[in-house]
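Structure in, sequence out. Go:
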């Protein structure tokens, strides 16, 4: 967080080779940016349930600024939901049967009943 804060607040511009350690996951030539992004996206799609990706992403983003206890409670609910659902069984069966998984949960339709687990902030106009 300290490094991110410094980079955002200073607006520092630097060459790739001068970037702070850990700032980028990958450094690739310009013509390889999209192919690398697609490679990572394909790996995610091939190996992970869309619901798992959606909930994990939101947990990482939302739980970054809460207490460890609050994050643990939210993450425990997510783990329970995912481990007792159809995508968990499909993931296990596809592994045992040595085949690609066919996950069914749709993060646009099948969100858990506790979603969202954070307090929503209203941003509509009060005028």
């Amino acid at each position: 967080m300290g490094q991110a804060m410094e980079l955002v607040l200073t607006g520092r511009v630097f060459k790739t080779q001068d970037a702070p350690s850990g700032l980028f996951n990958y450094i690739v030539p310009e013509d390889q940016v999209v192919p690398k992004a697609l490679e990572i996206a394909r790996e995610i799609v091939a190996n992970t349930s869309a619901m798992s990706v959606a909930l994990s992403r939101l947990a990482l983003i939302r739980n970054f600024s809460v207490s460890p206890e609050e994050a643990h409670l939210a993450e425990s609910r997510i783990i329970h939901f995912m481990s007792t659902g159809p995508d968990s069984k499909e993931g296990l069966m596809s592994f045992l049967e040595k085949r690609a998984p066919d996950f069914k949960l749709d993060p646009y339709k099948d969100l858990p009943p506790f979603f969202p687990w954070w307090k929503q902030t209203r941003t509509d106009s009060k005028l």
